[in-house]
């Protein structure tokens, strides 16, 4: 690991730990002799599932308008945040945690997967999302990968070829792409898949 990257990950680790309030183990009341096995089983089954911490890297963009890429990224973040148990952080939020010198060093990270993985690990992420939009022969190729930090392997991926238009075709694919990336995380109550009309208007205002 390069010395400058080590400094960044160390700073992020300190900031992440400092922003996480200490947890106090829950107080367990004394169990009476009359407690039944079925009661104990019910308590065990009620244990909440763990939060999945997701880091979304800056997306690659080749031959695609910068505005389309930015709104696609914002839409992707918003869509993932609709999922149950999902805690999401973007690279913009990572940069906001760093001082100016560390931000300059982070720019050198680029699209290098090992570098991005170290940054994701420093903020305690379980999952790293990478990908982007590339113009290929007049079509827009949308590709996204879900990388499991623990196994350092791709657990889910999406690749879609879209007829190039004004960008609406990219936003229309966000909902289904996130559904394929996270089949294990259902929507939060009251949410529905797909980009909001407000986000679409940011791309193509009337």
Key words describing this protein structure:
206 residues, alpha/beta, six-stranded mixed sheet, disordered N terminus
Kindly state the number of beta strands.
6
Strand content: 15-25%
What is the approximate shape?
globular
Q: How would you classify the quaternary structure?
A: single chain
Derived from helix and strand composition plus strand pairing, the structural class reads alpha/beta
Distance between the termini: 48 Å
Given the structure, what is the number of helices?
9
H/E element order: HHEEHEHHHEEEHHH
Q: If you average the pLDDT, what whole number results? A: 80
Low-confidence parts lasting 5 or more residues at pLDDT below 50? Answer: 1-26, 31-45
Q: Roughly how much helix do the residues carry, as a percent range?
A: 40-55%
Let me know the largest β-sheet.
6 strands, mixed
How much is the radius of gyration in Å?
Answer: 20 Å
Polypeptide structure, described:
- With 206 residues, the chain is of the alpha/beta class.
- The chain has 9 helices and 6 strands.
- Strand 5 and strand 6 form a beta hairpin.
- Helix 1 (3-19) packs parallel to helix 6 (113-122) and helix 3 (66-80) packs antiparallel against helix 9 (197-203).
- The relative contact order is 0.16.
């Amino acid at each position: 690991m390069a010395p400058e990257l080590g400094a960044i990950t160390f700073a992020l680790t300190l900031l992440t730990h400092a922003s996480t309030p200490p947890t106090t183990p829950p107080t367990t009341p004394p169990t009476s002799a009359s407690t039944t096995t079925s009661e104990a089983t019910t308590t065990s089954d009620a244990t909440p599932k763990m939060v999945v911490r997701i880091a979304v890297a800056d997306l690659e963009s080749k031959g695609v308008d910068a505005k389309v890429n930015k709104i696609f990224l914002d839409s992707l973040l918003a869509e993932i945040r609709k999922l149950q148990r999902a805690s999401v952080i973007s690279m913009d939020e990572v940069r906001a945690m760093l001082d100016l010198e560390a931000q300059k060093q982070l720019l050198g990270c680029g699209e290098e997967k090992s570098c991005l993985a170290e940054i994701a690990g420093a903020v305690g992420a379980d999952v790293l999302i990478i990908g982007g939009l590339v113009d290929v022969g007049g079509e827009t190729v949308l590709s996204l990968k879900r990388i499991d930090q623990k196994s350092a392997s791709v657990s889910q991926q999406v690749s879609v070829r879209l007829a190039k238009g004004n960008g609406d075709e990219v936003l229309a694919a966000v909902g289904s792409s996130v559904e394929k990336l996270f089949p294990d995380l259902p929507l939060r109550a009251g949410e529905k898949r797909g980009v909001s009309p407000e986000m679409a208007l940011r791309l193509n205002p009337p």
